[in-house]
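thread: overnight batch results

M.L. [08:02]
morning all. the overnight job finished for the chain we discussed friday. pasting input first so we're all looking at the same thing
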Amino acid sequence: MHLRHITNCPNDAEYTTHRRRKGALIWQIYTCRQHRRLSDWYVPSNLRRLDSSEPPHPCGLVYDHRSGPDVLLSHINGWMAVGTWADAPVADTDWAGRLRDAHRFATYLRQEELAAAIADVMRLADAEAWNQVVALLAETENRRLPR
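M.L. [08:03]
and the structure it wrote out:
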């Protein structure tokens, strides 16, 4: 399991929602009232107000039960919004190829900070340091998105 924060919000969570795949919990997020409808994390049918007897959680806390490569692919397909290059299409499940495309794309767009972060992610992923990969992706996502 990977634990990370996806907001910089100082509030305690008031809501939780989750996603399941084939009956297994994929991720669970805790959010405050303002962030309860984050676009990539909003599952209205599962949104539940936290009971006051539950332990407090900070807003934006995610318990992610996916594998490191699956989390990486979700970042590439989500907030990074990176497609594939027409001259060398890469399979959606090829995290290393998609990461190379993301780096190439960020470099082409002169997004130096993102390109540097992706280079670090590539190095960590090659070493299979998945907890560090997930933490770096979350940190980079927090810096890039308005909250």
